[in-house]
Amino acid sequence: MAVLLFAEVTDGHLGRDATAKALTGARKLGPVTVLCAGARASAAAEEAAKLSGVEKVLCAEDPSLGHRLAEPTAALIAELARDYTHIVAPATTDAKNVMPRVAALLDVMILPDVIAIIDADTFERPIYAGNAIQTVKSSDPKKVITLRTTAFEAAPEGGNAPIETVPVPADPGLSAWVEDKVAASDRPELTSARIVVSGGRGVGSEENFKLIERLADKLGAAVGASRAAVDSGYAPNDWQVGQTGKVVAPELYIAIGISGAIQHLAGMKDSKIIVAINKDEEAPIFQVADYGLVADLFQAVPELEKKLG
Amino acid sequence: MKVLVPVKRVIDYNVKVRVRPDGTGVDLANVKMSMNPFDEIAVEEAIRLKEKGAAEEIVAVSIGVRQAQETLRTALAMGADRAILIVATDDVHQDIEPLAVAKLLAKVVEAEKPGLVIMGKQAIDNDMNATGQMLAAILGWPQATFAGEVTIEGDHALVTREVDGGLQTIRVRLPAVVTADLRLNEPRYASLPNIMKAKKKPLEEKTPADFGVDVSPRLTVLKTREPEGRKAGIKVKSVDELVEKLKEAGVI
Ligand SMILES: Cc1cc2nc3c(=O)[nH]c(=O)nc-3n(C[C@H](O)[C@H](O)[C@H](O)COP(=O)(O)OP(=O)(O)OC[C@H]3O[C@@H](n4cnc5c(N)ncnc54)[C@H](O)[C@@H]3O)c2cc1C
Predict the structure, then answer these.
(1) Is A39 near chain B, with CB under 8 Å?
(2) Which residues 120-179 in chain A show a CB within 8 A of chain B?
(3) A267 — phi, psi (to 5°)?
(4) 3-state class (DSSP) for residue B118
(5) d(CA B58, CA B83)
């Protein structure tokens, strides 16, 4: 068995947390070769080579791979897949875009959002927004898998793997990148933060959302949001936590003015400690909260911020 | 341009799913079923393209049990022009896998020659997020997944995608596969007169054998279980008590 791990590379940088977590899962399946692809990928490849447990790093650099467009990226992976039994990636939006395309090119099923590896063919994955966990066994000759990063610890540094350059197939020219809208932030990344403070519709406006952001900054936390808060324009789309947003499992998750719909819980119920602040004592979020505070958030949040010293 | 919209019949998103005690799956008998919410958004987008003059005809397709007729009638009532039902199983508990669905859709595309396929980014039952990408791969077409905004510009589509880092805009050559994310639009409700009219719109029935596609699964479900539950917590009386508890727990 041999595993190809498609590393998270954005604008030439390695998505270290996601890649290191997926590496831990991938190693359960066999020796791991990491693929770093991009318009620039050599710095990412060097960083990946330092992760403990990596056998080899493949570096694929070509302008066509620059913005992780699905068609050239999937063509590259499908080409390399010949030498591997398992093709694995962290379940990021990039990988969710590319990996099913890879699977179809190889005529195999995709195994998305795997949370546990039972053996080389058998995996656990959540279905129905995490309301059920399914164990599935694949009969395909190759497995194409995305791993949910919250289910795996990040692999440490300490490796020194050799780096090899690989040729890139010709760009099929089916799509072109136009622009990215990325908000720069000094806050920790949502999916790897130790603490996440999230706001919902109860926060009421974009202006009021500053309350959530201030509390987050006081705690050195990332900021999250419910779908309702994003839909209402209080918060950007990449803050959404849930079934169709990000999945987080921090040590502390503080849900403020969030009712606790199953689609939201799908993204945060594996957090170690959950705090809920909601003025409705019947809100379903209290059923998963370790500490619930029934209060008006406009009083409780500023008070909490102050008392954190 | 013709637009093809695949739609799936799933448990209504408001229903609390229950795992069968014997671990064989999720209870689907006597449960409210609806169109997958992401597919409703895809149907709505197709209708808006038609209203803007960017599309002439909308064909809805569903693959699954015969009862998916109802889902197609919903699409027709919203504004699709005609429908194709591929009856691939008679067991409501059998989910047809994305790879098989994509192969069937590819055959429908060959026959119908649409300029655009627009579909939900994921089905809320198996949460796979795969069929659109797989269809694009099989056809050798470009894909624009997780779409929050779609504009047709001649023989290209400009699509803004919701991604982990924020938003990415790409331009794809048509024909293409677009998958709809939540914020693409807010789907309309079908009016009563349109529901009546939908009953008369054409709905063609097919089987996988008509297309020569093998739908046997690649994945065997060995077991379905409940997730680990969380232990009930406590209510704190004040912000002071909350801070105290969090300090005790060592998280702040
Ligand atoms: C297909 C699909 C996918 C979805 N995916 C997601 C997803 O990924 N993530 C997600 O979050 N949702 C998702 N949803 C939406 C989900 O069903 C809920 O609609 C959403 O989570 C509700 O957000 P909310 O809790 O902020 O709003 P609400 O449900 O409106 O709750 C607001 C809460 O704020 C409280 N409140 C109001 N004012 C105050 C105050 N002054 N002080 C304290 N509390 C106050 C209220 O008591 C209430 O409990 C999805 C839905 C569908 C159909």
Answers:
(1) no
(2) 122, 126-140, 172-179
(3) -100, -5
(4) strand
(5) 9
Longest Cα–Cα distance of chain B, Å, equals: 68
CATH number of the structural domain B2-248: 3.40.50.620
> pLDDT value at position B229?
86
From atom 47 of ligand 1, which residue's Cα is the shortest distance away?
Answer: A280
User: Which tens digits make up the pLDDT trace of B12-40?
Assistant: 999 999 999 999 999 988 899 999 999 99
Token pair belonging to B25: 């799956």
Tokens 């890879």 — which residue?
Answer: A102
User: B76 vs chain A: nearest CA distance in angstroms?
Assistant: 26
How far is residue A226's CA from residue A232's CA, in Å, rounded to a whole number?
10
CB A31 within 8 A of CB A3: yes
Ligand 1 atom 29, closest CA = A259
**CA-nearest residue of chain A to B242?**
A291
Q: Among A127, A140, A263, select the one facing B218 at the smallest CB separation.
A: A140
| Alpha-carbon gap, residue A254 to A264, rounded angstroms | 13
B residues 120-159 lying closer than 8 A (beta carbon) to A: 121-122, 124-131, 133-138, 140-146, 148, 158
Residues pairing with B44 in the sheet: none
Both tokens assigned to B129: 């997020």
Positions of chain B with pLDDT under 70 = none
Residue A66: how many other CB atoms lie within 10 Å = 17
The Cα of B107 is separated from the nearest Cα of chain A by a number of Å equal to 15
Distance from C-alpha of A134 to C-alpha of A278, rounded to nearest angstrom = 33
B199 Cα to chain A: minimum distance (Å): 31
Sign of CA dihedral B15, B16, B19, B20: negative
DSSP-H helix ranges across B2-112: 37-51, 68-78, 98-112
A251 contact partners, CB below 8 Å, separation of at least 6: A194, A195, A271, A272, A273, B251
A201 lines ligand 1 (CB under 6 A): yes
Residue matched to tokens 């050195």: A220
Q: What is the pLDDT of residue A175?
A: 98
Which pLDDT does position A183 carry in this prediction?
83
**Quick one: tokens of A247?**
């999945």
CA of A168 to the centre of ligand 1 (A): 45
Q: In what order do the strands lie in the sheet with B116-120?
A: A175-182, B166-173, B156-163, B143-153, B176-180, B116-120, B2-6, B57-64, B82-87, B203-206
Determine the average pLDDT of the residues in A218-224.
98
Residues of chain B contacting A231 with CB distance shorter than 8 Å: 182-183
Q: If we measure between CA atoms, which residue out of B147, B141, B5 comes closest to residue B82?
A: B5
Q: What is the pLDDT of residue A64?
A: 96
Contacts of B96 (CB under 8 A, 6+ apart): B63, B64, B88, B89, B215
What is the structure's pLDDT at B29?
82
